[in-house]
Specification:
This protein is mostly helical and 88 residues long. The protein has two helices and no strands. The chain starts with a helix and ends in a 5-residue tail after the last helix. One of its GO terms (cellular component) is mitochondrial outer membrane.
């Protein structure tokens, strides 16, 4: 193992290849980390408001359905009261 490492350090072509591979690894890491940062930031800026608006609309539709159900129950109660001869 030590003989192999000393050959890499003494051979100029292998030293140049090692330097290029190290730079390539650093560049790939830089590009990957920036890509992940852009993707996460875009999701936060563009996706979260859409999700929050969707939740707000779901709550509104639930409230609307509850109000319609309450109105239907009130009408049924009034109809049954009239049938029984009670004042509404």
């Amino acid at each position: 193992m030590g003989n192999f490492v000393s050959k890499i350090n003494s051979n100029p072509k292998l030293q140049k290849a090692k330097t290029k591979l190290t730079k390539l690894a650093k560049d790939v890491y830089w590009l990957g980390s920036n890509t992940v940062w852009v993707a996460i930031t875009a999701f936060i800026v563009l996706g979260v408001p859409v999700f929050l608006q969707y939740e707000k609309e779901c709550q509104m539709f639930d409230m609307q359905a509850n109000m319609m159900q309450q109105q239907a129950q009130a009408v049924e109660a009034a109809v049954s009261a009239v049938k029984q001869g009670q004042p509404v």
